[in-house]
């Protein structure tokens, strides 16, 4: 309920994908990407701040930011969240951590929105393939395993035994299946049912788009055709509009790889934001 109320309070709707950094901005919380070996930090006070590790994948950063926002919404004190692999079981199972994780999940993946995403693709969570679930995860800007776990344990739309089977696949194996060969570059898939207004990606990452979608020049470069799709590589920072038939449109926003600085400036070529410390 807190996730839905926070979204709707700032006109972001109860079901569509959103940009967590824009939501934080509407709440008056500055977000900075920092070069530190943690997941994220929340600093409570008259001028609240969230700091997110720049080295983490784009989707992981978004979830971490939503998690730290959960600490703010529920009135928790300042927090430092260690890397997931470094956390003790006791730390991960503290009530405030479980609450912040749940808030993050339902803020980024609202139940109605996720169910609509599957329905619009004529899919059911329990029978969808890893590739199909990966596409829905991309639409909401979250990781593959994040969506699988949310479907199983947050929404109860996926049987736990099926979740265990799906988690045997990884983004690396899914990329190989989609591209027909191994690839180390992060990949985003935007299909014909893409519903997010924006698409965030880093320089050096790849993007699969339908052939029917046109992308304004400047930040994305086509590098291969893949059946009915075109594979692009993000080559420069900036924002460009992509559009296709039947009103399909989104803004592709490219930031530097492992960008350090204020989240609001991440798509600019030059970032002089030290005054915002």
From TrEMBL:
Record-annotated IrrE N-terminal-like domain positions: 24-147
Domain of life: Bacteria
SUPFAM superfamilies linked to this entry: Adenine nucleotide alpha hydrolases-like
Classification via Pfam families: Peptidase_M78 (PF06114)
Alphabetical list of Gene3D superfamilies matching this protein: 1.10.10.2910
Protein name listed in UniProt: ImmA/IrrE family metallo-endopeptidase
Originating species: Caldimonas mangrovi
Lineage: Bacteria, Pseudomonadati, Pseudomonadota, Betaproteobacteria, Burkholderiales
